[in-house]
Amino acid sequence: MSVYNQPRKRVIQFIILGMVLVIITRLFFLQVVEKKYSKLADANAVLRKVVYPSRGIIYDRKGRSILSNDAMYDLVVTPINVKNIDTAYMCEILRIDKEEFRKRITSAIIKNGSRRVSVFASLLPPEMFGRLQESMYMFQPGFELVQRQIRSYPFNAAANILGYIGEVSPQMLQKPAYSAYNQGDYLGMTGLERTYESVLMGQRGIQYLVKDNLNRPQGPYEKGEFDTAAIAGKNLRLALDVDLQVLGEHLMRNKIGSIVAIDPRTGGILTMVSAPTFDPNLLTGSYRARNFSRLFADTTKPLFNRAIQAGYPPGSSMKPLTALIALDEGVITPSFGFPCFGAYTYCGRPIACTHHNAGHAANLRLAIANSCNAYFVHLYRMEVDAAKWGGVKKGHQKWHDYISTFGLGHRLGVDIPGESPGKAIDTAGMNKLYRGQWNSCSELYVGMGQGQVVATPMQMANAMCIIANKGYYYLPHFVDKIDNDNTELLTKFREKHTVAHVSDSVYMPVIYGMEDVVERGTGQSAKIEGEIVCGKTGTAENNAIVNGKLAKLKNHSVFVAFAPRDNPKIAIAVIVENAGFGATYAAPIASLIMEKYLHDTISVKRKPQMKTLLEYNTLDPVVREKSKLDSLNGASAKMTSDEILKLYFRD
């Protein structure tokens, strides 16, 4: 070889040597210095396992856990890794046939692809899990057991408040809001579980386990050096009193309606009953999907939260609001009387008074105590026709503004989803309804809580908070505190909302009238020994379309109240559908709830009254017969009235 080629040869040799040195150095770094990648690359030896966190617990106002976590397991599958397994044995354990096995594998591939994990069998019963666990090495690496936290409910109550959790759907995963979730994850679907999902869910962890030659986990890999710990969800502390909740569900069994009680000092919801209700344990565990279908199809609509979703004519329970508007606008004074002779006849059609006696509307206080229809429809007309409001159309809009300030006709913002706005017709609505041709006689019924005004039980209870506080309220809410949380989720519930239109001085005449309702008027069945209760009965008309015609059905029983009169601690609204007068059923139910909260007990003198309420049934026999759930009434299921009474009255 020519000596002139020697330098070129050496250059090529140096280049090759340099490349070899770079490769050796990199391999040394990867294999000796940086062990992470080499260790985690060997999928045949290391199992990557997702560790799901413990979901946050929910406590009532006294620190009692009203739901807790139990451990169950899902069997998950990665379809591409399912090879050479004993399909027949797995089918035997899961109690399915081979056709169902293939169907589930195909479904997993269609939903999530062959390389992603999908749930193959969810929330396995204990005996099924036990057999799978001891034989799991036969089904790996395609199948894996994943621990899940499921809810359990020791009080069997508050189903519509707490909500339930379910598996995230493929449709949800396509939305940015669910980017933190993977297929097979669970999240809150309704109630508090949904509203506070971000704090209840916690944070997933990862665990790496060493496998033997039969794919059986042998222990932590590298002493857990590469593991990340799961972070438990945060706990919620509620204003809810679970004793009141259970009592309310007992009292409303075999009835349709609602109870809402609020602490007017804070806006904290003490109890919220929607009846008929159901046992929340029905929507947990391996039978959740089947039970949900039964609940959804049930004729009594137990999934429908009547406390915040059902709209009712408030009836006479709205008369205190009508009185406040009239007093604040100066169209009457507390001494204003109306010559009522049993009916209002000034608009060409008589509107009868349910309760009538001589002088029953001689002044505002008596009119409230005796619930004079004529008095309050006339007040509405005086309000909207007042000259200073510029005519009936401007006057009605002013009336609507007052009603909105009292919380009717719009959502309050309670911290569970599904709240209805109710309805309070404004001037634009009146123009549309009557094609511009109307006057104060057209909708005078709203003065007595009928016609074009609809409220939810939550709105009615909040209105009582406003009167109890003489002009302010806090947004109704369940959650008072989140453990170890510094976010601003609860800030809006600390803000005081003042009813700007109404001056403080107008409240006392109305409050005294509501006191008379209970002491000597239409609501004497709501008396509580040793307490001054201020309330208002209501008998809301119940009309419906039957066979294409408007039919008048049995009225709803309504009662709203707060107690005690001075420094009120509880405000309440009770509606019992198809039960007649407010004093007959709604008032004593409200009274028992208030007495239990204020005294932490119920007087033994009220045992006969409570027994009557427990045994009263407003459910249509045909409807009840068609109902598909044995445990229709949640906490009251399969208990006799005498068994329930023993919980509150010891012999």
TrEMBL record:
Signal peptide: none annotated. Keywords: Carboxypeptidase, Cell inner membrane, Cell membrane, Cell shape, Cell wall biogenesis/degradation, Hydrolase, Membrane, Peptidoglycan synthesis, Protease, Transferase, Transmembrane, Transmembrane helix. SUPFAM superfamilies: beta-lactamase/transpeptidase-like, Penicillin binding protein dimerisation domain. The chain crosses the membrane at residues 12-30. It holds the Pfam family PBP_dimer. One of its GO terms (biological process) is regulation of cell shape. PANTHER family: PEPTIDOGLYCAN D,D-TRANSPEPTIDASE, PEPTIDOGLYCAN D,D-TRANSPEPTIDASE MRDA. InterPro entries: Beta-lactam/transpept, Beta-lactam/transpept-like, PBP_dimer, PBP_dimer_sf, PCN-bd_Tpept, Penicillin-binding_protein_2. Residues 257-595 form the Penicillin-binding protein transpeptidase domain. It comes from Chitinophaga ginsengisoli. It is found in: Cell membrane; Membrane. This is Peptidoglycan glycosyltransferase. The keyword Transmembrane applies. GO terms for cellular component: plasma membrane. GO terms for molecular function: penicillin binding; peptidoglycan L,D-transpeptidase activity; serine-type D-Ala-D-Ala carboxypeptidase activity; transferase activity. The keyword Cell wall biogenesis/degradation applies. NCBIfam families: pbp2_mrdA. Residues 51-217 form the Penicillin-binding protein dimerisation domain.
